[in-house]
Amino acid sequence: MSVTDSDELQLIAGSLRTAMTGTAGAKLDAALTELGWLDMLDEIPQAAIRLVFGSLGETGAHAPVLNDVVLRAAGKPGGGTLALPVAGGSWVVWERTDEPTSALDEELPIRRTAAGEPVPLGQGRVALGWWLVGTGRAMLSLARQHALDRVQFGRPLASFQAVRHRLAETLVALEGAEATLQAAADQPDELACLLAKAAAGQAALTAARHCQQVLGGIGFTAEHPLHRHIKRALVLDGLLGSSRELTREAGSILRAKGFAPRLAHL
Length: 266
What we know:
- Helices cover 62% and strands 6% of the residues.
- It is mainly alpha-helical.
- It has a domain at 121-257: Butyryl-CoA Dehydrogenase, subunit A, domain 3.
- Residues 121-243 form the Acyl-CoA dehydrogenase/oxidase C-terminal domain.
């Protein structure tokens, strides 16, 4: 990537974060369209997916743009909706409205629907992977700041080894998930995308567990933002296959192949 390309991506990232600050749902969907999200998805799909979905995770915003990624991968125009598989064999539609219908995450307009037509899920799984990693990083940032600010027994919470281990394990999980997502972007195929989504889901769940422990009682309150990220991680992990389901599916693929293909060149 040239310096100019890098500078342009930095400008795009700044514009995305500005658009996502205090905006979500249908308004953010419209703002992303105005910023040229669909054009970026056609011209620089991997960079666009990483920037948009990573930013959604880190800011806590939401928009129904997963529809666009899956539709484009199926050779259809963006801007619409379609049925998406979810953990447990069910199907849902992520509406492009501001009417929340998800029982778990009350901010998301997701409703159950009848089974849809089979569509390519690889790029959608990568997109959700970046969203999950961004959500995990948001949780890690909250826990880290709490550990630095909180004082117990006359010492900063961050000075306790158990706390530092939990934060370190979270960071390692998120960095590892990013590596698998990048590998899937460099060499996209069904197995690489599947494993990347599974790794990202597991990393986000690890972040939720460890960061909840670091934050202690305040992390359970509705006043603290952590619970929003945990709910979001649980919903996103289930979409297009949960980390547990995808791990089992990967095992079935490898058994059928009879060997483990190289997914990344080190």
